[in-house]
Amino acid sequence: MSVALRSSLCQFLIACCLGIAACGGGGDDEGDGSASGTGELMISISGLPSGTSAAITVLGPGEFRQTLTQPSTLTLAPGSYTVVAANVLTSSGLLQPQPPSQTVGVAAGARALANVIYGPPEM
Predict the structure, then answer these.
(1) Rounded distance, CA 90 to CA 114, Å?
(2) Across-strand partners of 67?
(3) Complete edge-to-edge strand list for the sheet that includes strand 79-85
(4) What is the CATH number of domain 39-119?
């Protein structure tokens, strides 16, 4: 291989490497939402018998309202969200959520968590 060809090939490879490096990582950020200015609200639900749907409503800014029946991760605009859980009637009786209501802050590029635990009514 001639010296001129080898030099041109090296320059081309260096230019390609610099171009790729300039693009940044851009890998999978597990949905952190930072590029779009959104965050995530992860709702976990426990204590319900298999096959039983929860009764959860998420309320937030701009008249946001979404009903959930199972654990979910929502991609949302930053702000304060209220997670309201209602009683669930099963074949074995009434189950109440704890807590019945909670307020969670969602920040851009972050994941917030709300836990709802169903159990028998407190006496």
Answers:
(1) 23
(2) 57
(3) 64-68, 56-60, 79-85, 101-106
(4) 2.60.40.10
Strand (E) positions, 1-123? 39-46, 56-60, 64-68, 72-76, 79-85, 88-90, 93-98, 101-106, 111-119
Reported as type and span, the H/E element at residue 53 is: none
Q: What is the C-alpha separation between 50 and 79, in angstroms, rounded? A: 33
The tens digit of pLDDT for each residue in 6-53 reads: 545 445 545 444 444 445 444 444 444 445 799 999 999 999 999 999
Residue ranges per structural domain of the chain: 39-119
Give buried/exposed letters for 42-61 (b at 16+ CB in 10 A, else e).
ebebebbeeebebbbebebe
Which phi and psi angles does 40 have, rounded to 5°? -125, 145
pTM tops 0.85, yes or no: no
Provide the greatest CA pair distance for the chain: 90
Indicate the length of the chain as a whole number: 123
